[in-house]
Design a protein that fits this description.
Length: 152
């Protein structure tokens, strides 16, 4: 098993998701932690290829989300100055990031379904219409619950 210190050293003590400088001191938002790129809950393992060093705040909010989707949503939050590196996010930001990742996954699923059936993808599809269509197709879309954001 790869320890968080070695991962942090390999990444020059920078978070894989927000590039914040991480510390070894426990309890703060910049504490260095091990994160699974593919979460163990969906079949990821503890191999070195599946582990990165992440600051505690990114690791807590990411939880079981797709790493690449989370990283994109995290960078959007940094650019919009909603969640700066090395800080705790607001509850609203936690919920928004989880929702953004789910929206990205929904877009991917719908576009993949359309491509398999030869249906053209929407140019700037209306989210509500896409959700309704997803439900008709049997794709379940979960809105983030208030309790999910409370974990942040």
């Amino acid at each position: 098993m790869v320890c968080r210190w070695r991962l942090a050293e390999a990444q020059n003590w920078r978070c894989a998701y927000c590039s914040a400088v991480m510390t070894s001191e426990p309890g703060g938002p910049t504490e260095a932690t091990r994160d699974h790129v593919v979460p163990r809950s969906v079949g990821g393992d503890d191999s070195s290829q599946n582990l990165v060093a992440a600051c505690f705040s990114c690791n807590v909010v990411k939880a079981d989300l797709d790493a690449w989707g989370f990283a994109r949503a995290r960078m959007r939050a940094v650019r919009a100055r909603r969640w700066l590196p090395g800080q705790w996010p607001s509850l609203e930001t936690c919920v928004r990031i989880r929702s953004d990742v789910q929206e990205d996954e929904l877009d991917y699923l719908l576009n993949a379904w359309r491509a398999r059936r030869g249906v053209p993808s929407p140019t700037k599809g209306d989210r509500r219409a896409m959700r309704e269509q997803a439900e008709r197709l049997g794709i379940v879309f979960h809105e983030p619950a208030a309790s999910e954001g409370a974990e942040c």
